[in-house]
Amino acid sequence: MRRFVAHCAFGAVALVCGVATSYQAWHLVQSHRVNAIVADAQAERSDADFPQARFARALALAQSGKTEDALKLYKSLALDSAPELRLAALFNTGNLYMRDARRYGPDEAFKSVPLVELAKQAYRDLLSRHAEDWDARYNLERALWMVPEVEQGGGDDSDVQSKEQRVTSNIRGEPVDLP
Q1: What is the pLDDT along the chain (179 residues), one digit of tens a residue?
Q2: Global confidence as pTM
Q3: Where are the alpha helices (DSSP H) in 40-129?
Q4: How many helices (H) and strands (E) does the chain have?
Q5: CA angle, 50 as apex, 49 and 53 as ends, to 5°?
Q6: Mapping DSSP to helix (H, G, I), strand (E, B) and coil, where does residue 147 land?
Q7: Which has the closest alpha carbon to 142: 174, 88, 178?
Q8: Residue (of 148, 90, 145) closest to 119 by Cα position
Q9: N or C terminus: fewer CB in 10 A for the chain?
């Protein structure tokens, strides 16, 4: 009887180890597949099953200058992917808008304002989900430097403190606190 129990226990342990090994092997195959697709991100095809592959495709599109296609992919990733990819997609979306805005010179500065506003919104969305992202804070500060916020108020300037904050936040050359 003892021998039978020992054999059953050994069989159960072997079965559990076999299931765990199969599970890890399946993950390894999936990882190799994702890595192959990410490495082949320059190709025109993109595998919709893997968000990492879509992210790599968006990155390749952005680097090749196809910003509209890259923005579409980044926006879809920002809506329906893992939290890490969602944050990275928001950050890269803001960066793409900022790069597009910087292409316009001082003579065409009015064209860059909507792009900077979109970049600020992307950085704010990222910071609302992950407030400790200092790169996004820095980029938001740069965007605010390029296009300062226009405060909407009722015209009541009796609040001296808010008036002082408005003045110091718009002075160039003065250090501005990070958001």
Answers
A1: 889 999 999 999 999 999 999 999 998 988 887 777 767 655 555 555 678 888 888 888 888 888 888 889 888 888 887 888 889 999 999 999 988 888 877 777 777 888 889 999 999 998 999 889 899 999 999 888 888 877 665 555 555 445 444 444 444 444 444 33
A2: 0.63
A3: 51-63, 67-79, 83-102, 109-129
A4: 7, 0
A5: 130
A6: coil
A7: 178
A8: 90
A9: N
Residue for token digits 């979306």? 93
How many whole angstroms separate alpha carbon 33 and alpha carbon 26?
11
Q: Is the CB of residue 55 less than 8 Å from the CB of residue 37?
A: no
Given a contact cutoff of 8 angstroms between Cβ atoms, the answer to whether 141 and 133 are in contact is: no
Q: Please name the residue that has the structure tokens 């990882």.
A: 31
Torsion of CA 82, 83, 86, 91, to 10 degrees: -150
